[in-house]
Amino acid sequence: MSKQPxxxxxxxxxxxxxxxxxxxxxxxxxxxxxxxxxxSLPVRKGDTVKVLRGDFRDHEGKVEGVDLKRYRVMIEGLNxxxxxxxxxxxxxxxxxxxxxxxxxxxxxxxxxxxRKG
Length: 117
Hints:
By secondary structure, this protein is α+β, with helices and mostly antiparallel strands. The chain has a single domain (5-114), classed as SH3 type barrels. It is built from four helices and eight strands. A hairpin with an 8-residue loop joins strand 3 and strand 4 (60-67). The model has no long low-confidence stretch (mean pLDDT 94).
């Protein structure tokens, strides 16, 4: 893999979905890190996250959607008002988030957490 910024940008821009999913990884809270012995995990709809940076710092909410095309996460309660009065989600980059509570309904995700290495 190259160190050149232009090639890094190109890689992210052209990445297929299975790689984009991994690029959407979010740090785990200290309690979850200790429990699952992992530093981060790809974010999913249903997870509860805390915003660490930006205008909405310290806001906690459930993930309502994950935009793999633009590398952004939509969070419940993070809305902004458009000039015409409509409320829209304010997208947040996953590097500015921390997973507080995980949605463990999916068997595949449980297998990922149990896997070593």
